[in-house]
Design brief:
It is a single chain. Helix content is about 45%, strand content about 10%. It is an alpha/beta fold. The chain has a single domain, classed as P-loop containing nucleotide triphosphate hydrolases (Rossmann fold), CATH 3.40.50.300. Helix 3 packs parallel to helix 5. The longest helix has 25 residues. It catalyses: dTMP + ATP = dTDP + ADP. GO terms for molecular function: ATP binding; dTMP kinase activity. One of its GO terms (cellular component) is cytosol.
């Protein structure tokens, strides 16, 4: 099946306009990809690069977003949960779930329904890792909360960029006395528990997750991300360094 035409200049943005379709009554199924991992592993960069590549390969609209903060309401909640006064762990989990519920209902699902590629920097697995393992709440309860908030929507592929938290912190180049957000200031043990939780989830659900060593160069990490995502999406052999030709049909 040939995807409908899109405006190449509008493929990669925060929220793009709907592209016309050759078959408006039967649009191709959207593709949902999430990036997970600690701060400083390169999620935003890798998501942007993958979005540009998938837009070329699939000829689809691409929507790049993030959690929290992918919507107007999300930006308010992001500021409250990351930069506001102290928030109790359960309240923090509820705020993230509220952001996710609104994000999915108003941005993610509509984009998927019109056949777009949606790539998000963090999704519900971050809540399980950070509020579940990091804050030491019950991980299964945090997961059920997010699944309820999203009506069970899970990504087609989740890319875990794995890196030692100490190395990731060095990459961020934080200066002594620099103001940190609530997660950044939670400490090394917190970051390590979150990393272990991400790895455990990836091991338990290998059909959805791909784990990429984020210690390599940006280019090498992106090449591996492209190969692994293409394999998970059933796209066949693709050139990780260029557009390539899709060997499968994403529906």
């Amino acid at each position: 099946m040939t995807p409908g035409p899109t405006d190449p200049a509008a493929r990669v943005s925060g929220v793009t306009s709907t592209a016309p379709s050759d078959t408006p009554l039967d649009p191709p199924r959207g593709v949902f990809v999430s990036f997970e991992g600690g701060d400083g592993v390169g999620k935003s960069t890798q998501a942007r690069l993958l979005g540009a590549w998938l837009g070329d390969v699939l000829g689809r609209e691409v929507v790049l977003t993030r959690e929290p903060g992918g919507t107007d309401l999300g930006r308010v909640l992001r500021d409250a949960v990351l930069h506001g006064d102290h928030v109790a762990p359960r309240a923090e989990a509820l705020l993230y779930a509220a952001d996710r519920a609104h994000h999915v209902a108003t941005l993610v699902r509509p984009a998927l329904e019109r056949g777009a590629v949606v790539i998000t920097d963090r999704y519900l697995d971050s809540s399980v890792a950070y509020q579940g393992a990091g804050r030491e709440l019950a991980a299964d309860e945090v997961e059920r909360l997010s699944l309820w908030a999203t009506s069970g929507l899970l990504p087609d592929v989740t890319v875990l960029l794995d890196l030692d938290p100490a190395v990731a912190s060095e990459r961020l180049g934080r200066r002594p006395g620099q103001t940190l957000d609530r997660l950044e200031s939670a400490g090394d043990a917190f970051a390590q528990r979150a990393r272990e939780a991400f790895l455990a989830r990836a091991a338990a659900e290998p059909e959805r997750w791909v784990v990429v060593d984020a210690s390599a160069t940006v280019e090498d990490v992106q090449s591996q991300v492209r190969v692994d995502v293409a394999a998970r999406l059933g796209l066949g052999a693709l050139d990780a360094h260029g557009s390539g030709a899709a060997g499968g049909d994403v529906r």
